[in-house]
Task: inverse folding
């Protein structure tokens, strides 16, 4: 979906396809048919943006076979879909029964991460619509925090500098500018926007910036204006933003609140949980750890890294951090000029919701994704952007 900002520039809104498990190119093509096109039709639009997630095998198939890339581009056009951004965070196995810590490998100290991201950039350059010259790729925030020493940090910085050089060469070759964005996430080396400033300024290239995920920012109790002001002052570009909402519990000491939270503790994804007290930020790596005894102080609200549907907050006594998303979006695109032009709804946890909240079949999932995009569209038009055909 495209929107005209009051300054005349185009802002792109997509939804991320990592909600649909697929490890191969055939699986990606099936996603377009079974999920993405039905969402577009529900929205009544001739064109829908999707943020493609391409696992390593699908990416390699596309980058090594020009005919396969042309076929994917044709399928996108035939189904009224367009791609300006990729989710390059998960490498493989994101649809597995248990993902947890595996999503953080390989990290930026491993050669596979550089090669995979460079391959994604070449693929994206070939998928961008004819009238779009800028693409974006979000990636993991360097590494999970453990087993990351000074040596691995320097290796990661070198890899990012090498990537920037390859992206420069790619633009020289294709005329398409591709930028890559570290996505801060709780528990990682880059947990917050402030954590991103030092490594990104050390890399020192405007092709490498930040992806502001509004669930992650909220989970870490970052104040949106302060976070974005710090990035601007440091000269770190916001390359894209993922529009998502975290799980919020106002009174985690109450038994009924803990019971409600326990329904969201599940075995597939990691749900880092945080609380902000007068003594600082406290956290656990997963929600079930937070619920076990006194692992986390319960005198202040808890937030958990569980991407809940934007349009449907959990039932009381829980809620979501949608107000944080709204505040971030206002700063990103509500001013005289957009800070970023790539927005991506990313609720990949539909099938990890408590059983009674999960969509039953493709039709209900498409309904839910369309409802999320409708909410995002309304937020954008309320800020003065105009939806384009």
Result:
């Amino acid at each position: 979906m495209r929107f005209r900002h009051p300054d005349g520039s185009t802002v792109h809104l997509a939804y991320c396809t990592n909600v649909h498990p697929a490890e191969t190119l055939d699986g990606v093509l099936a996603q377009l048919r079974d999920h993405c096109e039905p969402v577009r039709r529900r929205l009544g639009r001739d064109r829908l943006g999707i943020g493609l997630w391409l696992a390593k095998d699908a990416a390699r198939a596309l980058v090594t076979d020009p005919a396969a890339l042309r076929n994917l581009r044709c399928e996108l056009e035939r189904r009224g879909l367009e791609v300006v951004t990729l989710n390059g965070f998960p490498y493989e196995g994101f649809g597995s029964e248990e993902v947890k810590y595996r999503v953080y490998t390989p990290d930026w100290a491993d050669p596979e991460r550089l090669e995979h991201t460079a391959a994604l950039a070449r693929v994206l350059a070939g998928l961008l619509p004819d009238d779009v010259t800028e693409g974006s790729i979000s990636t993991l925030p360097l590494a999970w925090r453990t087993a990351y020493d000074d040596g691995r940090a320097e290796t990661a910085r070198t890899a990012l500098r090498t990537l920037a050089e390859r992206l420069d060469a790619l633009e020289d070759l294709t005329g398409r500018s591709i930028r890559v964005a570290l996505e801060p996430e709780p528990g990682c080396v880059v947990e917050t926007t402030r954590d991103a400033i030092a490594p990104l300024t050390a890399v020192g290239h405007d092709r490498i910036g930040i992806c502001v995920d509004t669930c992650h920012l909220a989970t870490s109790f970052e104040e949106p204006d302060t976070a974005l002001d710090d990035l601007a002052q440091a000269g770190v570009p916001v390359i894209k933003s993922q529009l998502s909402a975290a799980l919020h519990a106002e009174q985690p000491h109450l038994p009924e609140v803990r019971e409600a939270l326990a329904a969201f503790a599940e075995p597939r994804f990691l749900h880092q949980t945080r609380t902000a007290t007068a003594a600082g930020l406290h956290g656990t790596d997963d929600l079930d750890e937070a619920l076990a005894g006194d692992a986390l102080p319960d005198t202040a609200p808890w937030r958990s890294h569980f991407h809940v549907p934007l349009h449907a907050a959990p039932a009381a006594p829980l809620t979501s951090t949608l107000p944080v998303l709204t505040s971030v979006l206002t700063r990103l695109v509500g001013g005289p000029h957009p800070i970023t032009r790539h927005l991506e709804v990313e609720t990949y946890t539909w099938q990890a919701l408590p059983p009674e909240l999960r969509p039953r079949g493709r039709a209900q999932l498409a309904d839910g994704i369309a409802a999320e995009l409708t909410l995002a569209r309304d937020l954008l038009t309320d800020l003065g952007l105009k939806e384009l055909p």
Remarks:
- The two ends are 8 Å apart (CA to CA).
